[in-house]
User: Fold these one by one.
Assistant:
Number 1:
Amino acid sequence: MEEKPEIIAIIPARGGSKGLYKKNIRLLNGKPLIAYTIASALKCKNITKTLVSTEDNEIAEISKAFNAEVPFLRPRELAMDKSSIGLSMEYTLKRLEDEYSYVPDILVELYPTSPFRTASMMNKLTNILLDGVSSVKTVVSVPADLQYYYQSNKNKLRRLKSTNCFPDEIMNSYFFRMISLFYGRRLRGGKQVMHMETIENPIMKLDIDYLSDFEIAEKIIEDDLFNFDE
């Protein structure tokens, strides 16, 4: 019988925050913000390990209370404002291999500032990775419409009106911007193909950074406007 591939979900959550102090463990409808991301990983049928990467002891203890693994803290130099998430992921994977002989097949990065994930989305995107695609990213579409573009000239903004500024193939297309809802990649093997999953649900697009974002998220949960189990 073929062995089930190991999919690790790593949730990076540092203690410092520019926008809102300790936002990753700030209570959202009675639960720490990070608990929503931990729950989405634990409910995903394909994810075999859910781990929180943090330098903060309080975040570590709260994460463990919600059944995430925190086998070690990452160095503080990998948890600064300008620290590379990529380097912190490499550090975590290397230490798991060196100390626990654990080498996953697939890495899924889930950011705690995006709490609104459905079970169906998590299962669908991890299934795509299991099918052999090298990476999966969540994106939102951005229309290439000149009414949304302005040009700066001597501290004044002027709306672009002429379609001569862009070729037709740009004017009639859409651009895409990556969002932090889900990013998964194979650590070895697989086809060199990237899958972009366009997110249409406006609630799922919410990225919490400021107090106003928390207030919106509170209202969404209080009014039962989002089904996490869908």
Note: The mean pLDDT is 89.
Number 2:
Amino acid sequence: MESWERIENLINHFKLNKNSFSKEIGINNNVTIGRILNEKRKASKSTIEKIHLRFPQVNKDWLLTGEGPMIKDMPQIEHVPEGKVIDTDKLPEKSVLVIPIKGRGGLENAYYDDLLLNELKVEKLSVKKASSNGSKWFKIEVEGISMDDSTNDFDGSKYSLCEGDWAYCRSIPKIHWKNKLHFTSVKVFCFFHNTRGIIFKKVKTHNPDTGILQLISLNKDKKLFPDFEINVAECSYICNVLKVLSEF
């Protein structure tokens, strides 16, 4: 931190302005302090002495060098980093099948046959922990605005899907479809529906006895995007949406 920055911090700490701070330390005009701040100059030793004489609680070493706490006996705050660098070489990898909007039609017409899925472009994705071997991973381009909950006054929730986003999805093994889907913890699902195509929706209810799912859109316009029902038996894949990449 430069000398002028330390002076600026002091002024802010004592809730003063340049003029009142100058008067406090015995300088009749604010030219000296103004030049230090405006021209980003180093404060002279005489100015430091005046500051320390008026504010003895200020650490003189900090005034001169920036070392130690600003105020005497004020403990140094240990800054905890808010992120960490991840060594991706040590993370497990998954093969991700890439499905762009323009490539959906053929897959839907073939009921998502594995022969066509295996012809898709494959990307490698590093994941935090290995998932079930019975899962497939997909990177799917989002089409439409049914899951976009942004409005003129709201930027949208973190679960919002905008057209053109890419959603990373992990399939749920079919053996688990007879159990109630974890729709309270999973906010958005992706369904490979054999007649409706690939759809992204939130699950409102699931009857494991009949397999009926009630699906809802995040978009608030229920005239355009009403709730509807499907059956798990009508799907080739049901996936959790784990991550969304947006273009800005």
Note: The chain has a mean pLDDT of 86.
Number 3:
Amino acid sequence: MVIKHLKLKNWRNFRQAEMDLARVSYVIGPNASGKSNLLDVFRFLRDICKADGGGLQKAVKDRGGITKLRCLHHRNDSEVRIEVTLAESFEDDAATWKYVLGFKGKGAERSLITTEEVWRCGKQLLARPLKNDKEDSILLTETHLEQTMANREFREMVEVFSDITYLHLVPQLLKYGEQIGGKRLDDDPFGQGFLERLSKTPEKTRESRLKRIQTALNMAVPQFKELRFGKDDMGHPHLEALYEHHRPNAGWQGEEHFSDGTLRLLGMLWSLLDGNGLLLLEEPELSLHQAVVEQIPAMIDRVQRNRKTRRQVLISTHSQALLDNPGIDPRGVAVLEPSREGTSLRHVDEVEAAGLNAGLSIADVVLPNTRPKGIEQLGLWE
């Protein structure tokens, strides 16, 4: 099951926005245009569906409440509305599922559902508010996504949302996790518990994945030779690497000695192999050499080639090197354009498409159109 289309109203930066998704999609735009906020709508749906400790109210609260979530440019229409279309595959033109959720703030503490719809193959299975909802408005504080007894007919769709993964691995949290300590966020989006996740993976599966990742690191990291997983005397999990070195007995190095780029690349490769749902990658180019970044689109395709179920991937990026790859499907490129009335979202236009058909890349013809106006004056600032 894949997500093919997203439609938003009054979500964060966006008064109105629509986006088609491909197998691998790219979100590009200037700083503060809403790339992270666009990815967050999928995390929001996942958070609603959490079996333990999720739900609409917590998902809204975790984002600072409805006033932080709702677009500042909403005028008189304050309803936040999310519409997602799913299909069995990208080859299917007809939608298998469609989910619509609208909600508004009710006082300082609660959000109330204004509409919740579920469609399957064009047939409507759910249309809220129901009669019971109108008689007892407290029912409108919970979606049917989060209710096991209520989502039986469309649990397949719920599982798709539940499988969404976000990764923005922060190497320092992994290297110095024990020293930093502190509370770990739900779903560990920044990789603080990455080693524990590896530890919980069945040994045979873990070793198979690490072997594939080792092959990629052999090509991307100079002198990298071997990767292994182990535990110290206290039972804490660790990754170790062996490098080709002028000292033949230099020994293994723990993850605290890995470069930031190596750790981010390792985390991305593991995530591509680890799940089946939509994978959200925020700026995967960070800390990586340009030559490695250029290969990210091909690497995503290659690492999943032998999997029964290939992950759908949504990437936010500024990187010219990444977007210069000729294999990028322009149908999955979303361009964000901020204005005083909020951010608009568009796909590749006719002029840009003509350039792509002539053999140019997304980096050549689309990325330059996201440059902030007047950026040349930055060097003259005093």
Note: Residues 203-220 form the longest helix (18 residues).
Number 4:
Amino acid sequence: MFHLIERVLPAPLHRALLPLAHRLRDAWRRWRGVPIAGCAVVIENDAGEILLLRHSYGPRGWALPGGGIGRGEAPEAAARREIAEELAMDLARLDFAGRIEEVLSGSPHTAYLFAAVSDAPPQPDGREVIEARFFPIDALPEPLGEITRRRLEAWERSGTRA
């Protein structure tokens, strides 16, 4: 579906519609309360910095790359797909760093957390992701969302840090 939208809608129009789509999805999740699953990836470079990004929709803070897991899709496959689609990065290795139970948009959410190392420069898709940069772990940008903070803490506890 994403690839069809990408071929049909010009990037500026797609980017302009994403905030509305996000609000509708958020309202739908709150109304339904159905459990959902997603993935997040902590990508370090050789300097020990981590990759954070800003979306064109939703909260304006910095976040980890990742996204939803499709029906029947394995969490690792979803993580690789999201990184490739949104940042044009191919990760040689992904390590499972944990599973986090949280609430997202009023629905129970299972987040599968992965760790990777890459020095490849991220190339934001200009649709969902408008900015992506590596930051030193002790100098993360603000605002950084609470969910992102909890996921980073889980990653640090996991022992998958490079």
Note: The chain has a mean pLDDT of 88.
